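hi support,

uploading two proteins for the ticket. first:
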Amino acid sequence: MTTRTRTLDQNDGTLTLRTGVTGRAARMGHRLTIALDSWRASVTFSADTPVAASMVIDVDSLRVIDGAGGLTPLTGPEKVLVRGNALKTLAAQRFPTVEFDAETIEATDAGYRLVGPLTLHGVTRDTAVAVQLTDGTRISARAAVSHKNFRIRPYSMAMGAMKVADEVAIEFNATLR
């Protein structure tokens, strides 16, 4: 059977992180929406079935889009500060990429389940990603990543009274070329 590989990058879709806030002072914190503006993915198909998939994300490409909640709206200078704190938390200079390589792809009722190693912050853990493929061209995926699982200490303020929640939601939407 013939296989074909499709490549995607930030021109084909969006990769977004959503954070929560925990702690006694959580009401003061912003629930962030962060875009990752530089990434590359490839999907290999046998007929119309995906048989391999991988993605590499450039950590330094993160951009704070929005901060919901908090005592005041998130301003432009605060977004710059949040970005700097996130890059420091992720040790972006030491670990400049996040990489995922699906070792297994299983069909599900809703689409596919990809499982494979995710390398983040110098730590590799098997991670499952739920993927939907619509009309053979639209890909959407969702996953949750725990700071703890990757030895990342969540950013905190006020002596830990407010900190980024352990679990971060990842959303991916793209159109195959």
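and the second one:
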Amino acid sequence: MTSIDQSKPVAVTGANGYVASWLVKLLLEKGMTVHAAVRDPDNEHKIGHLKRAAAATEGQIKFFRADLLVPGSYREAMEGCELIFHTASPFVTEVKDPRTELIEPAVHGTENVLDTANQVASVKRVVVTSSCAAMYTDAVDTVNAPEGRLTEAVWNNTASLDYQPYSYSKTLAERKAWEMAGAQERWDLVTINPSLVFGPSLNAEANTSEALNMIVLLGGGEMKLGAPKIGIGVVDVRDVAEAHYRAGFTPAAEGRYLTSAYNTDFVELSNLLLPKYGDRFPLPKNALPKWLLMLVGPLVNSLFSRKFIRNNVNVPWRADNTKVKEELGLSFRPLRETMEDTFQTVIDAGMVK
């Protein structure tokens, strides 16, 4: 049981990120002081939305320069904080060098942040943003998991440097976090493991996520003949922020929290958008045949290897979100609301025409 004093400042790494921005906004609305660790505190384009959020609330925000790969650079931001939210980590799927672009920032960044937590005497709890990717690589892994669905007990053992390196990076980073937490006794660790995060962005022009790019593909015409029926889990960014907040301030919170609202697929997501946007945008109405994807997928996109198509297309995605609902009292907003708010974000940002 870890009680956090809400009058003390709270540190957030990667504070201007897609999920972190909503978390910072929530903390400010609760009247807290946020120590926002960002790479460039002078870049108004990337942090202006956080300043505006603070101006509209009782909370206060202070910016600190920090870098995942610079040892000790989070020290100043953490001083005086009992609670650290470590959200900073790369989320990209197309990379030239997975080791330097994904593995090292994720693992060494986690190591750097937690090393600093070990040195700052005030720290009592660290909440790390992990991912369902640390639990699975392909949709088929969820079906093959014990009892046919993901739970907090499941770890990813199918990703590698050569196949789905993003999932591999999230797995290695979270394992490193638990290893370091277990080597000391002053602070406790809680991880939030979201599935694919959709929802509006507080700063879409400067901070697009891979999820928003997927929505651009759905609505931009590239998939107008049909979408691949890839099994995925989806959760709203605002609900993920709420899960972080509750994980930080619920004394009994412990372990991992699989944070996914819906078991779905890209065809269903597109169908949810059709009533409101289908007359103006070339949203797909149907699923592409798996045999066709096997034939042309690898030619169109290197990520669509035959192995990926075999393991994900027409394969359901299954996960159990009982723990986060029961222990943190989290409820999820309707999927249609999430999808419409996401699509409106990409329209307003001029990402689809």
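thanks. also noticed: Residues 10-348 form a domain with the Rossmann fold fold (CATH 3.40.50.720).
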